[in-house]
Amino acid sequence: MIKPLTHIANLSVEKFMTEHWHIKPYLFRQAFPNFEPLCDFDTIAEMASDEDIESRLIQHSKTGWTLEHGPFDELPSMKKKAWTVLIQGIDHHLPEAYDLLQLFRFIPDARLDDVMLSLASDGGGVGPHYDSYDVFLLQMHGKRRWKIGPLLDKELEEGLPLKILKNFEPTEEFVLEPGDMLYLPPNYGHDGIAEGSCSTLSIGFRAPTQAEVLSGILRDMADQIDQDPTKTQTLFSDPARGLQKNPAEIPDDLLNFGINLIQQFSAQSPQIQRSMGILLTEPKSHVYFVNNTEDQEIHEIISVLGERGIALSMKTKMLFKDAVFYINGDAVNPTSALTVKQLQMLANQREMEPIDAAEALNNPEFQYFLVGFAKAGWVETLI
After folding, report:
1. Over the chain, what is the mean pLDDT?
2. What is the pLDDT of residues 206-235, one digit of tens each?
3. Alpha helices of 227-312 — where are they, by DSSP H?
4. Does residue 156 share a domain with residue 22?
5. How does DSSP assign 112-138, residue by residue?
6. Is residue 27 part of a domain?
7. Beta partners for residue 324, in sequence order
8. Fewer CB within 10 Å of terminal CB in the chain, N or C?
């Protein structure tokens, strides 16, 4: 198991999280000394050509900006200036990127978005902009010049396919080389331009909006309520109402009927926790899982996982709160304390060595859940 970083360059992670995270930028010179690129340009081009991987090609010329969505059979020549290809979620497809991400698990998994890769020719970039998430910008190949500054004006250029700031005024400027890393909090202006061909990794941690969280909670709660016989069969009641003076006026008791129902869902409500867990683990629309156990009987699945260990798929997101677990948009409710402990180990470590897996699979309830996970493609063998 890869352990999270305790220091980045000469700064302790604890100090960084206390003084900089979600507050202000920080430049880490040689965050990863002698950094070895995760992949070469050919592999990047191969990912950009994959229809299962989200990619975008951005080009800038005298005539303006253009944006194309992948897959791309071929990328422009590196001799052509001012183009950038962005490849989302490479941690789902490139083991080296997945391993890199494990180093950042001093931040809650619930905040993770993905690792994006940007490959650019000389002068390439996406224009001055801001993001709605915390991001670590790690230089992989070549050099990129970053201009950054507080977001004083959110006005965007009109008529462009990209969200480019109209009046961006940078206050700092850095050139990043391989192994250097720049942290930026949400809503902080930045503009990165390649100096020669280069590639950059963006390790993003989303900060969901109130609208996103609330709509997700309400959507899931609506599904729960439709399946609750108490809610679907209990009617509003108003015996001995008396005469209505203003026929078009909403009666207070009917209004309070709705208000009282909403107030039942407090912050500690299991329904609220369930909805948040599902929202935070729901896969993005382009993410799908493959069942590799179709030809295996249940006892064969158990035997293989016990012998070779258990690993969550690189695409799997698994969180928990108390004794309830959330995995890829589903909720799991184990009944035994032992199963809770074992599932917490799997969620926290994202893997189980064969000796631990074999022991855990002797527990029938854990075994039941893991067989389901394996059939869904959410777990695989460790070795």
Report:
1. 94
2. 888 899 888 888 888 788 788 888 888 888
3. 229-233, 252-263, 270-281, 298-308
4. yes
5. EEEEEEEEE-TT----SB--SEEEEEE
6. yes
7. 321
8. C
Q: How far is CA 150 from the centre of its chain?
A: 25
The Cα 176–Cα 194 span in angstroms is 10
Residue range 242-264: mean pLDDT, rounded: 87
Q: Is residue 194 part of a domain?
A: yes
Write down the residue that tokens 């329904």 correspond to.
271
Residue ranges with strand state E in the chain: 7-8, 11-12, 26-28, 55-61, 64-69, 83-87, 112-120, 133-150, 172-176, 181-184, 188-206, 310-312, 318-321, 324-327, 330-332, 351-352, 379-381
Q: Does 138 share its domain with 243?
A: no
The verdict on 146 and 240 lying in the same domain is no
pLDDT the model gives residue 268: 60
Give the count of domains, the chain. 3
The amino acid present at 87, given as its one-letter code, is I
- Residue 6, SS3 per DSSP: coil
Separation between Cα atoms, residue 65 and residue 162, nearest integer Å = 8
In tens, the pLDDT along 188-206 reads: 999 999 999 999 999 999 8
Q: Using 50, 70 and 90 to split pLDDT, how confident is the model at 295?
A: confident
Contact 251, 238 (CB under 8 A): yes
Q: Are 196 and 141 in contact (CB under 8 A)?
A: no
Shared domain for 215 and 360, answered yes or no, is no
